[in-house]
Design a protein that fits this description.
By secondary structure, this protein is an alpha+beta fold. The chain has 8 helices and 9 strands. α1 packs across α4. Bound molecules: iron/sulfur cluster.
């Protein structure tokens, strides 16, 4: 388990998922601005160099975020899984070695090898009757994480209010989150849950659509609108501002209408593995 966590983290930092590579290739085909094309070509060259030299895609190794889907009959308790994820992140950082980013939030002193109090960040989902474990690793760079937004709209703001806030947020972000990337949107629930959902949305395979047809329609609409802003690759102008727009939602209180935006940069790193009850690890699995 510890070894799997270490591998997932380093793998995520070195090797972009296939769906992201395809989305970046599609972006280069669609882009018409000369500057935008040049930026996208540089991104492609960056990925090529990382592949050939087996090096990191970006120097920012991010803050390690894990999503665990645990079967209730999986033999290792979640406390043990969390311990292994922390130890694996630390081992990967020391052995590779990787840049360590974690600091105490007040003193700003380093707290160790990409670990600290409540870091890495681990999210849980429990699956009744199952004996397996799915782990997804999403190292989150600060440039894009700093471009996170929350607004407690009122119900009267409706869907138009949601669209307006998303557009305003992405225009405000401009080139800071290293576009073109994935815009994750969380709607409904509570303030904290909307932000959680927005982060979950950026970690989905690119271009997947929400199973709720109304939400999927909003994803399509916002994807189109966001690409009409003209922000373009790295904010230098162009047709491709976002690679995708994903939305996760939850039902909410009748007087609430929270909306959260989380940006994921072009280096949308994501790896996953399935771990069986016998300890066998399958690194090809995605969720
Ligand atoms: S936002 Fe992404 S691409 Fe930009 S520096 Fe951070 S990790 Fe790298």
């Amino acid at each position: 388990m510890l070894g799997a966590a270490a591998s997932l983290y380093v793998w995520a930092l070195r090797d972009l998922p296939r769906d992201l590579r395809e989305a970046l290739a599609g972006a280069l085909e669609r882009e018409t601005s000369v500057t935008g094309i040049r930026v996208l070509e540089t991104i492609h060259r960056n990925v090529e160099v990382a592949d050939t030299e087996r090096n990191l895609v970006c120097q920012d190794t991010g803050i390690a975020v894990y999503y665990c889907r645990v079967g209730e009959r999986f033999p290792l308790h979640p406390a043990g899984i969390e311990r292994a994820l922390k130890a694996g992140t630390e081992r990967a950082t020391v052995e590779h070695p990787l840049r360590s980013n974690t600091v105490h939030t007040l003193t700003r002193e380093s707290t160790g090898a990409n670990v600290g109090y409540r870091v890495p960040i681990v999210h849980w989902e429990f699956v009744p009757g199952w004996d397996g474990l799915d782990v997804k690793c999403v190292p989150k760079g600060s440039g894009s994480e700093n471009m996170s937004f929350l607004k407690m709209l009122v119900p009267a703001d409706g869907v138009n209010g949601i669209k307006r806030f998303v557009l305003e947020s992405i225009v405000e972000a401009g080139g800071k989150p290293c576009p073109p990337g994935i815009v994750g949107i969380g709607i409904g629930g509570s303030a904290d849950y909307a932000l959680h959902l927005a982060k979950e949305a950026i970690a989905r395979p690119i271009g997947t659509r929400n199973p709720d047809p109304l939400v999927a329609q909003l994803e399509d609409e916002l994807y189109g609108l966001l690409n009409e802003t003209g922000i373009g690759p790295m904010g230098l102008g162009g047709d491709v501002t976002v690679l995708q727009c994903h939305i996760e939602h939850a039902d909410t209180h009748m007087t609430l209408n929270p909306v959260a935006v989380n940006y994921q940069c072009w280096a949308a790193r994501r790896t996953s593995a399935h771990i069986g009850a016998d300890g066998a690890v399958d690194y090809d699995r995605d969720f």
